[in-house]
Amino acid sequence: MTKDKIKANVSKRKIETVKGIVGLINNNSTIIIASIKNLPSKQFQNIRKSLRDKAEILVVKKRIMLKSIEESGNKKIEELKKFVVEDSAVLFSKEDPFELSGILAKNKKPIGAKPGQIAPEDIKVEEGTTDIMPGPAISEFGALGIPIAVQEGKIAIKQSKVIVKAGEEINEAAASIMSKLEIKPFKIGLDPIVLCEVNTGKIYKNIKIDTEKAVQDLKIMAGKALGLAQKIAYYCKETIGYLLCKANSHAASLNKLQPKEEKKEENAQSTEENKSQESGGQ
């Protein structure tokens, strides 16, 4: 095959690729550019399978994607070109962009730490027994200031301790201990760089979705709101039971404070009223 024929075939392939991507841009409402850096091929394929009914995922060269955005004729998504980078995948979908990002977050897998990485948050070893036999590991725990004891032939951590603070570099000793304790502080998967609403051209950056933390935060806020509602006597179906019990308790306490003579008079008066009502009825 001559060079001219090879060039013609390559150009034809590019044209077809661009045409296909333009179709995806125009037929979907959401575009997500996500990093695939350091993502193993097997995991990428698993993510692609899990999203098969929700999104089309492509890995394309930067210049092909830029050309496709231009050819789409959608001026609203021009800004998206700033975020097209190498080592990225592009997701096309009709789903809500944040819902899709939540699915990507759920598909992330925890992985261990390597020396030189930066801790995403405080990394702590928890108090309790381990399956680690005493030996060289004792000095490793000691180097990190982790208080330990030997119980039933195994190392036990006497007190929880943060061994790497958020933003700090993980050293070899910390990485080794984390490996032994199976602490996996990192998650690997598709990391959204930007979300784009095709119809409006609106772009969202630095998206971090943690559904577990969000649920936990909602539980904490709901608990605080309930406590405040009870304190200010705001009645609703969640507080009415508590408020009625409290009112009944207060009534019982006030009743105990009432003098006995007043109680007798009240009882006598109540008896007279009842007799009067009965006589009237007859």
Give a written overview of the molecule:
It is a single chain. The protein is of the alpha+beta class and about 280 residues long. The protein has 3 domains: about 5-110 and about 190-205, Ribosomal protein L10, N-terminal RNA-binding domain (Alpha-Beta Plaits); about 125-185, Alpha-Beta Complex (Molybdopterin biosynthesis moea protein, domain 2); about 220-275, no CATH class. The protein is about 45% helix and about 15% strand. Strands 2-3-1-11-12 form a 5-stranded antiparallel beta sheet, covered by helices on one side.
Write the layout of secondary structure elements.
Layout: H1 3-26, E1 30-35, H2 41-50, E2 55-58, H3 62-72, E3 88-93, H4 97-106, E4 109-111, E5 123-125, E6 128-129, H5 136-143, E7 148-151, E8 154-157, E9 161-164, H6 172-180, E10 186-188, E11 191-197, E12 203-205, H7 211-231, H8 240-257, H9 260-281
Helix pairs in contact: 1-3, 5-6
Within CATH, the superfamily of the largest domain carries the name Ribosomal protein L10, N-terminal RNA-binding domain
Kindly report the spatial arrangement of strands forming the biggest sheet: 2-3-1-11-12
Mean pLDDT: 84
Overall morphology: flat
